[in-house]
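Technical appendix A lists one of the benchmark inputs used to test multi-chain prediction within the project. The record comprises two sequence entries:
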Amino acid sequence: MIPSGSPSLRRLSALGFATLCAATAVAGCGRRGGPPPASDGAVLVRDLTLEIERPGQGRLVIEADRARLSDLPGRGHGSLRGVEVRSERDGGVAVVRASAASGRLDRDGGVHLVDATISSGQPESVRITARNAQLSTLARVSADGVRARVAVGP
Amino acid sequence: MRALSRLVALVVAASAAERAALGEEAASEVEIVADRVEYDREAGRAEFQGGVQLRHGQVELECDRMVVEMGAEGRLVTVVASGHVRVRGRGFDASAGAARYEPAAGRVLLSDDPRVTASAGELRGRTIVVSLGDGRLSVERARGVFRVH
């Protein structure tokens, strides 16, 4: 159930997104006792799960072991550690997966990854390692410092 | 004409081993290194830019910009390269302003001042198609310079 008071829901809805926010994340119900406030007002979160949905175009699911989020309530942005990202079609089929040791959640809902590994296809047909990568809900990846492996076939 | 046949024959001879290699590679992967990529999974398209290097079996391709087109299964179908294109395979070395590589078909179409160099000499033309499977060169408006022994 979507927490209707979620700050991310308000923020992303204003940009044309609908956002689901797992109870462990921005809604402020950390599994290990709730998010402790940082000295500058940022919120430290464990086991973050954030889903950003664009109706008809799929959604981006971001999971992080730890996150430091600023501007809450509000746009919600900040740094991520131990990041897993899935770009899913409607129906929950993951079309692009990515992982990285660290990353950043942007104000616009995109996610940047550092030293990222990205893959797509079922079975996997594309694998990309990149120094920096950005993923969007439209299963688009922009990256630099790239090494890619692509399966050949019709 | 004899010299032209000689060049083509040399390419054919050199491609015998490559044909075997390509047979194994046909179902495998292409590796691409580049400064940047824009990958659109839904469109089945990836655009690589900056110091692009592709390797597929014995074939190596370098260029400034490369667009990879993928089929419904997300598998690579066609590579379109542009800007300082250089293609190397066993027995030949080619350069051009643009190239289209079809790995599954084992075919390279070179355009924009293409030239192919083999041990017998150099061949230029308006377009050159290198058939990696049987080693044939198809050249439109061919001009060749060959070594005479």
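Chain B touches chain A at residues 25-42, 46, 48, 56, 68, 70-71, 73-77, 103-104 (CB under 8 Å). Confidence is low (pLDDT under 50) at residues 1-27 of chain B. Comparable benchmark entries are summarised in Table A2.
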